[in-house]
Specification:
This protein has helices spanning about 30-35, 155-160, 160-165, 210-215; strands spanning about 40-50, 55-70, 70-80, 85-95, 95-105, 110-120, 125-135, 135-145, 150, 170-175, 180-195, 200-210, 220-225, 230-245, 245-260. By secondary structure, it is mostly beta strands. Strands 8-7-6-5-4-3-2-1-15-14-13-12-11-10-9 form a 15-stranded mixed sheet. α1 packs across α2 (about 155-160). The longest helix has 7 residues, at about 30-35. It is globular.
């Protein structure tokens, strides 16, 4: 199976986080306002191999955003260390609500898109999919049936429900997957706290709701600084792929993330 589910990294690479001042997740904070909060900043990341004592830098990541009236246009670019582009994602929000999302998988010469009629975070409306691979285009529609996210806004949803997660509550979301032309269910839950390089951290686990999807995708883990809410790293499925035995395979990796000023570069390799 060449590819079934890809998790463009918080993520999100590209996960949206609340600023330190608002990190306590006040009752009037919602995911849409969090998405708007970082509209004038850049998120950068480094994607490292997961199963190695000496992690290898595989890709770099950069998320930029610019406003166009009521729209927020996001571009998420994954590049090889030499600068060649491996994949590009684009998301458009209107007042913090997802309108459309495109995926350009340059490694395998495939591309797709989705459009939302309704409010994905509220789980209301319809999503329209299109995906082209090897010259064949498939389309599909699905009625939204619960809070629905992409990689770019999943942690905005988590931050909007931070107090619930920290209290031990499990949240259920639907994840939009363009290559499958459907949404897939996942649960979000706090998986523990730890001390990491002198920092108190909180780990949040994203687990497939379906046993069968769980056979294809391992749980994904987000690590946050407990005191500031800063994202430290993300471990799990990411957008770019890895070539093995002459074929492109889904990639599980470790990604370091950092918000920088809009004109900033990549974070330190450490």
């Amino acid at each position: 199976m060449r590819k079934q589910i890809a998790f463009p990294v918080i993520l999100s690479c590209g996960m949206l986080l609340l600023a330190q001042a608002a990190f306590a997740a006040q009752p009037d904070v919602n995911a849409s306002s969090i998405i708007e909060h970082h509209a004038d900043k850049t998120l950068v990341g480094r994607v490292y191999s997961k199963d190695s004592k000496k992690p290898q830098l595989l890709y770099t990541f950069k998320r930029t955003a610019h406003r166009d009236g009521p729209l927020l246009n996001v571009v998420r670019t994954y590049s090889y260390p030499d600068g060649r582009v491996a994949a590009v994602e684009k998301a458009t929000y209107r007042d913090g609500n997802l309108v459309s999302y495109t995926l350009d998988e340059k490694q395998i010469n495939a591309h797709g898109s989705l459009k939302i009629d309704g409010n994905a975070l509220a789980g209301k409306g319809t999503v329209h999919f299109s995906y082209t691979d090897k010259g064949n285009t498939k389309t599909g529609n699905e009625q939204l049936s619960g809070p629905t996210v992409i990689n770019d806004d999943i942690t905005a949803y988590m931050q909007a429900h931070w107090n619930e997660l920290m209290a031990g509550k499990t949240l259920n979301v639907r994840y939009l997957v363009i290559p499958r032309q459907e949404t897939v269910g996942f649960s979000l839950s706090k998986s523990g706290e730890d001390n990491w390089n002198g920092r108190q951290v909180v780990n949040v686990k994203m687990d497939p709701s379906s046993f069968f999807i769980g056979l294809l995708v391992d749980p994904v883990y987000f690590t946050f600084d407990k005191n500031t809410g800063e994202i430290i790293q993300y471990t799990g499925r990411t957008t770019p792929m890895i070539k093995k035995d002459g074929d492109w395979k889904p990639l599980d990796a470790v990604t370091a993330l950092q918000w920088v000023p809009a004109d900033g570069g990549q974070p330190n390799a450490s």
